[in-house]
Amino acid sequence: MDETLAGRLESILPGGRGVWIPMDHGVSSFPELGLEKTEAAVDAAIKGGADAIVLHKGAVSYHSERTGWGRFVCHVSASTVHGGKNSQNKVIVANALECLGRGAIGISAQVNLGIESEKEMIHGLGTVTSQAHECNLPVLGMLYPRGPNLALDPSDLTGGVAHAARIAWELGCHVVKVPWTGSIESFRIVTSSVPIPVLISGGQTTSFLDLLDIVEKSIKAGGAGVCIGRNVFSANNPTTHVRALRAIVHDESTLDEAARHLG
Hints:
Elements: H1 5-12, E1 18-22, H2 25-28, H3 38-48, E2 52-56, H4 57-67, E3 72-75, E4 77-78, E5 91-92, H5 96-101, E6 106-113, H6 118-135, E7 139-145, H7 161-170, E8 175-178, H8 184-192, E9 198-200, H9 208-220, E10 225-227, H10 230-233, H11 238-249, H12 255-259
Helix pairs in contact: 3-11, 7-8, 9-11
């Protein structure tokens, strides 16, 4: 495997695009539908053609050794639903060198903008990108403008999402995950604000077909793909859902064409 930064990025973002499946949710809350049998969830995503799977460090070690698959990204930010007012305060629980030793090809960290501990999370992200720079590890920044202290410009059609993407890039991330902004027009502002690939999160949708429609729109707006977890691993057939996402992200299929993978 090419262990340069460029080589690792090409492995998990072939052609600059990616279908990433995060499965780090079990730390935040458990039981988690679809993750009770972690082997089945990971194997289904790999079978469907996922470009990367995001896991916490213990799971990276386990699945890397178990599968021999080389595209696990280690998530290093953690908090739980039991944290009360600090439940959204993500703390750093691993370093880049450790992630590399556990078999990860990249590293992922989260910042929730607008909450009281925002500055600590930004500091943590900066530490992660500094460490990753020394190891040639790509960094995914998961940035969400979601806290009560958000100070949004009334003219900002993106609701702070463009700022979130900008923070990730300026602090050294190689790819960023942000929420969908609601329209091609507004999401194009996000993608044009940074020179790194922008992936969208899943969020709340009424159906997977609605989600595929959003993914198609995000690609038209310059997006680079998806980093979507629950909408995939909690499905009855996660493999077909990954294939449908791949059809849009990599093949630029239409919604109707991608939906055929769902049967």
